[in-house]
């Protein structure tokens, strides 16, 4: 059975190459703004800003 609650799955997309590299959980009640994290992109081979994209 699926979990019920405020947590949702989201994908993080690289700003430079537009590839989805990470899937993370986010609590909708505590963080209502979209996520912007500096993470490592394996395609660009450097740390870039990753933005939130909805996952199914």
Q: Quick summary of this structure?
A:
One of its GO terms (cellular component) is ribonucleoprotein complex. This protein has 56 residues and is mainly beta.
Structural key phrases:
56 residues; mainly beta; Rubrerythrin, domain 2; four-stranded antiparallel beta sheet; 0% helix; 55% strand; elongated
Describe the structure.
The protein has one domain (7-54): Rubrerythrin, domain 2 (Single Sheet), CATH 2.20.28. The protein has no helices and 4 strands. It has strands at 7-14, 20-27, 36-41, 46-54. Strands 2-1-4-3 form a 4-stranded antiparallel β-sheet, with no helix packed on it. A hairpin with a 5-residue loop joins strand 1 (7-14) and strand 2 (20-27). It starts with 6 loop residues before the first strand and ends with a strand. The model has no long low-confidence stretch (mean pLDDT 91). This is Large ribosomal subunit protein bL33. Belongs to the bacterial ribosomal protein bL33 family. GO terms for molecular function: structural constituent of ribosome. Keywords: Ribonucleoprotein, Ribosomal protein.
Which helices and strands appear, and what pairs or packs with what?
Layout (H helix, E strand, L loop, with lengths): L6 E8 L5 E8 L8 E6 L4 E9 L2
Antiparallel strand pairs: 1-2, 1-4, 3-4
Any idea what the shape is?
elongated
Number of helices: 0
Structural class: mainly beta
Kindly estimate the percentage of residues that lie in beta strands according to DSSP: over 45%
Order of helices and strands: EEEE
Number of domains: 1
Q: Which CATH architecture is right?
A: Single Sheet
């Amino acid at each position: 059975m699926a979990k019920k609650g405020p947590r949702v799955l989201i994908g993080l997309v690289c700003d430079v190459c537009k590839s989805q590299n990470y899937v993370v959980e986010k609590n909708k009640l505590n963080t209502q703004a979209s996520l912007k994290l500096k993470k490592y992109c394996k395609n660009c081979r450097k740390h870039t800003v990753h933005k939130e994209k909805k996952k199914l």
